[in-house]
Amino acid sequence: MPPYVSRDLIAERLPLIFPEGTPNRTYCVRELAASTVFAALYIGAVESTGRFLGPVHVYRMTSEQAARSSRADREGYAQQVLRKKATIPGTRWYADNTREPIRDETLRDGLVAIGAVLRRNDLPTTSGQPRYALKAEFAALFDPTLEGDALAAAIRNFQARHLSKSALARISIMRAGAAAASAGVYITFPNRETRQLAPGPSAVISCAVIESFATRYLEQPAVLWLSESNNKVVLRDDQIAKAIGLNIEPDKNLPDIILADLGPIEPLIVFVEVVATDGAITPRRQAAMHAITDAAGFKRSQIAFLTAYQDRSSAGFRKTVSQLAWNSFAWFVSEPDSILIMRNGGTSAARLSHLLAVHDEP
To answer: Residue 22 in 3-state DSSP?
Structure first.
C-alpha cells in the first residue's frame, strides 16, 4: 500500500503537477480529480500492484471512510464497495450519477490522456471490473514526506517524461506570460520601435500578436493602431495608414490592434481583438469594422479579423467562442504555430477533402 495521504494534500499538488497550459487541465486539477487520485491511493491502485480503481471507488467514498487510514480499512473498502448492496457508513462524497464524469472526463480525457493513469485493455468494454491504476511515478508525487526542492525536482522529472513536447512548450509560454503580466510588458514593433505596456494579461496577448503572430502570418507586417484596455492609445501610425488609404479615427469603434500586411500588391488589413476575459470579434463588431473599410474603398478580400487569446483553456475563450464571427480567425499565444479558421460557406469548395488537401503536409 502507498502511504496514506489526505485529499487536501492531493488537491494542493495537482495544480503544481499540471500547471496552466496542460491539455484538459481542468479535468486534472478539479476536486473530482483529487477525489479520484485519493481513492486510487487509498485502495493501492498503483502500477504493477495488481490492484485497480473503478469509478465506484470514488463516488461511494464517504468522509468517515476516508478518515480510516489503516491497511485493513483500506483493503476492506476496496473489496466491499464492489458489492451491489454494499453499505459504506458516513456521508458520501458523490451521487451514483457522477460515474460518467469520473470515467469520461477525469480519467479518459484527463489523467489517462496526460499519461498519469494506466487503463487495462484486457477487459471487455462492457465489463464492470475496475480497470485504472496510477502510474508509479505519478503516485510517488503524493508521498507526504516528499517536500520542498525534492518535490519540485520530482514534479519536473515527471513532467519531462510524461507530458508531450507541445504540452511542455505550451506550459512554458503560459508561465512566461504570467510573469510578464505582473511585471509590465515591453513590446517591439516591426519597425524596431519599443514601448512599454501596462501590466496585465491583455498586454501579454497584445505583445504576442505583434511580435509572434504578425511575423508568422504576415509577409511584411506593420502596426497601424494599438490601444490598451483603458482606451489609451499606445501607437497610431497615420503615415502608413494614409499611404494605404485607411483613415484611422480614434472616435470610431476601433479594435485593440490594427495590423497591415504591406507585402501583397493589395495590402491586407487585419483587425484584432485581444481577449483576456471578453471582447471577441463578434458579427456586430465585424460589421462595424467592415463599415469603416467599405467607406475607405477597401475590398472585403483585403480585410481579415482575428481574435487573440492566451490559451484554448482560458476562461476568455470558453466564454466567447460561441460569439466568434464567421469568416474570422482565432489565435492562441500558447500555440503560436496554429490558427483556428471560422469559415462560412457550404459550397463544394468547402468539402472536408478539399480543406484537408489545402493543409496537408508533405
So the answer is: coil
Q: Which three cell numbers stand for residue 23?
A: 491539455
Model confidence at 355, pLDDT cuts 50, 70, 90, reads low
Cell of 125: 468494454
> Residue 325 and residue 338: Cα distance in Å, rounded?
19
Going by the DSSP 8-state scheme, the letter that residue 325 receives in this structure is: P
CATH dotted code for 180-359: 3.40.1350.80
pLDDT averaged over every residue in the chain: 85
Residues facing residue 329 across a β-bridge: 306, 341
Owner of C-alpha cell 464497495: 81
Is residue 190 within 8 Å of residue 214, measured between CB atoms? yes
Locate 344 and state its grid cell: 462560412
296/34 Cα distance (integer angstroms) = 57
- Are residues 285 and 326 in contact, defined by beta-carbon separation less than 8 angstroms? no
- State the distance between the two ends of the chain, measured CA to CA, in whole angstroms: 50
CATH of range 7-163; options 3.40.50.300, 1.10.10.10, 3.90.480.20, 1.10.10.1820: 1.10.10.1820
- pLDDT 10s digits, 253-298: 788 899 999 888 888 999 999 998 888 999 999 998 898 888 888 8
- What digits encode the pLDDT tens for the residues 52-81? 999 999 999 999 999 999 999 999 999 998
Please report, for the chain, the start and end positions of each structural domain, with discontinuous segments joined by +.
Answer: 7-163, 180-359
Using 50, 70 and 90 to split pLDDT, how confident is the model at 362? very low
